[in-house]
Amino acid sequence: MSLGEPSDSYSKALTERRIASGPLRVPELPIHTRPQEVSSGIDSYTQLPLADLPETEKVITVDDRGDAQAFPKEYLISWIDSQTEDGKPLTDIVAQITDPAGQLKSIRLTRDIWERCIIRGPWQGDFSPIWANHIDATAQRELTLAKLRDSKPDFTKSCINFIHDLRNFTGNKGSRNRLDSTWHEFFLRLPYFDDESRDTILQMKTPRSTVADDMKALAQKRLGAELCAAHDLAPLFERVLGICWDKEREKALSSQHTMGSAEIMSQGSNLKRLK
Questions:
Q1: Mean pLDDT of all residues in the chain?
Q2: How do residues 209-230 score in pLDDT, each as one tens digit?
Q3: Which residue from 47, 75, 149, 180 has the least number of CB within 10 angstroms?
Q4: What Rg, from alpha-carbon coordinates, does the chain have?
């Protein structure tokens, strides 16, 4: 899906906002206008000039270069909701604006923008709970990972190897064999994680619910199609497990766990695939 293309979850979020906000016409894509153009810009949610909107209905962000952007609040709420439903962390969400020349410009809602702009101002009542939930989930995730690393000395190595194999499922036979040997729908078993670690990972809190619930929701979105190990699972588990692949790539290549065919068959015969 391209950046400018509305996702199913975004359309759903907009529909829910329509119902909650009354009979206002809402287009499928957000239109963001620069503050200096507010007097001539139109908020497509209300069909009113942005200048006529009360301050509580506009969100102003300022990046680290001092560039300011105005976002109609209802669009920003719906976009954030749809992106988190798709598994995006709040600080990785990218919104778009149209500059005076009609060109799209991407704005990443970084931690700095959240803390300096989005959760401040007259609109903070709508966004502060979203940010607070994100911070709480992040803190609980870090605490859980710290406990796993303390109790299981090889946990970090297992995480790195797990991400390596997810990313190389298609092109690396060894990676594919190791993942298939888990007999688990999300590959969360040996040779990567024991049952206790797997259960702990699946119950880790996320901004929307738990890892297990987020995985089920992602699977449902695929309408019965298999999840892609490299493109669906790897990015999600990198965030969940706190693995920065660009930094850990060399460790994975140098310490990758290898299994013989006999060991793979032995592992597989004792495991049942979870449905």
A1: 76
A2: 999 998 888 888 777 677 889 8
A3: 47
A4: 22
Q: Around Cβ 254, how many Cβ atoms within 10 Å?
A: 7
CB 229 within 8 A of CB 223: no
| DSSP helix/strand/coil, 155 | helix
Beta pairing, strands 58-62 & 48-49: unpaired
Nearest C-alpha neighbor of 137 from the set 87, 235, 207: 207
Of the candidates 57, 38, 176, the one whose C-alpha atom is nearest the C-alpha of residue 97 is 38
As a whole number of Å, the end-to-end CA separation of the chain is 28
**Residue 71 parent element (H or E):** strand 68-72
Q: Which two tokens stand for residue 208?
A: 């929307």
192 vs 211: CA distance, rounded Å: 17
β-bridge mates for residue 58, sequence order: 72
Determine whether 20 is exposed, middle or buried from the number of CB atoms within 10 Å of its CB (0-12, 13-18, 19+). Answer: exposed
pLDDT surpasses 80 at 138:
yes
Tell me which residue of 85, 87, 106 sits closest to 32, measured CA to CA: 106
Alpha helices in the chain (DSSP H): 8-21, 73-85, 111-113, 124-151, 155-167, 173-180, 195-202, 211-221, 234-241, 245-255, 261-269
